[in-house]
Amino acid sequence: MSNLSYIETREEMAIVAKNMWDRRLTNAAGGNFAVKVDENRILISPSLMSECFHCNIQPKDMLLIDYDLNLLEGNGKLSREGLMHMLILKNFKEIGCTIHAHPFYCMPFVSQAKPIPNVTEATLGRGYVGCIEYTKAYTPELSQNVYNYFEKNRALAEKKPIGVILPLHGVVVSGPNIYMAYSMLERIETDAFCTITKDCI
């Protein structure tokens, strides 16, 4: 393992993957994330991280790719959603990490293609979590539509983490680093929970 590049980032990614699963921030249907580690270099979680491994992955499992999606280091299979991560990380110098996930309380909004409003201080100033138009999963068109959402919201995305809903599929969040992106995932999950349960109080 000592010969692996970017070992510290790999270790951080393994921790985040486990937290995503343990805290129900994704499910067995999917989820993946990527971290920009250098110019034209991205570490990305392997395909089937959730379905086959329940997010119990090791630093060595992360794949090193370039902006052309060439596999530079690692033995796993590249996720079909790698293009989505690459487009954002390549074209937004302020964004260092993107996470795609299926969070438990966000999924009702995902299934109904409804935005998640800001209802806590934790997301104020970050904009509501809007929706793109429904686009079939794993297609280049989906990756492009997610990127287009970020481009449309570039002024905000360059300053703060943001999120977007992929109808019938899941969410994508961003951050300047892995911890801020993961924090955004937790924050929108809390907003989703609070919105769903507001009439119970």
Provide a descriptive summary of the structure in words.
The model has no long low-confidence stretch (mean pLDDT 95). It is built from 6 helices and 8 strands, in the order H-E-E-E-E-H-E-H-E-H-H-E-E-H. Helix content is 34%, strand content 17%. It is of the alpha+beta class. The protein is globular. Helix 2 runs parallel beside helix 4. The longest helix is centred in the C-terminal third of the chain and has 20 residues. The chain starts with 6 loop residues before the first helix and ends with a helix. Strands 4-3-2-1-5-8-7-6 form an 8-stranded mixed beta sheet, sandwiched between helices.
Shape: globular
- Order of SSEs: HEEEEHEHEHHEEH
Supply the number of helical segments. Answer: 6
Distance between the termini: 51 Å
Contiguous runs where pLDDT drops below 50 for at least 5 residues: none
Largest sheet: 8 strands, mixed
- Alpha carbon gyration radius: 16 Å
Instruction: Look at the helices and sheets and give the structural class.
Output: alpha+beta
Across the major sheet, the strand order is: 4-3-2-1-5-8-7-6
Compute the number of strand runs: 8
Mean pLDDT: 95
